[in-house]
Write a structure and sequence with these properties.
The chain is mostly helical. The chain has six helices and three strands. The protein starts with a helix and ends with a helix.
Length: about 120
């Protein structure tokens, strides 16, 4: 089954695994040492991360090393950015609308400032 990057980062443990592996490639046991869950559970998370392309596993002798491939997170960044732009424009329009429809709030603010002096 091919998974997408959004499914992988939906889980906090997988996000933490990505964070650990992003610093340096680690073998599966070294990754598991960072968490209070079983080694098989870590392996399942690693499998999901591999299926969506966020990590690769390289066999070196008897050890399997996990390496982060963070380029796939660009997909998430692009998706988030489009909504950031959308919502920023909506909030800016709301702020402008409120300022135009409630001019007394400007007067109240200036009165408060003059009273303080």
């Amino acid at each position: 089954m091919r998974r997408d990057v959004f499914q992988a980062i939906a889980d906090p443990t997988r996000r933490a695994i990505i964070h650990v592996i992003a610093k340096q490639p680690l073998n599966l046991n070294a990754v598991a040492e960072h968490f209070d869950i079983s080694r098989p559970a870590i392996s399942k998370h690693i499998k999901i991360l591999t299926e969506c392309g966020l990590i690769t596993i390289k066999q070196e002798g008897r050890e399997r090393y996990c390496k982060a491939k963070l380029q796939k997170l660009n997909e998430v960044s692009t998706w988030v950015e489009q909504y950031k732009i959308f919502w920023t424009s909506k909030f800016n329009a709301l702020e402008q609308f409120l300022a135009e429809t409630n001019p007394s709030s400007k007067k109240n603010k200036s009165l408060k400032k003059t009273k303080r002096k």
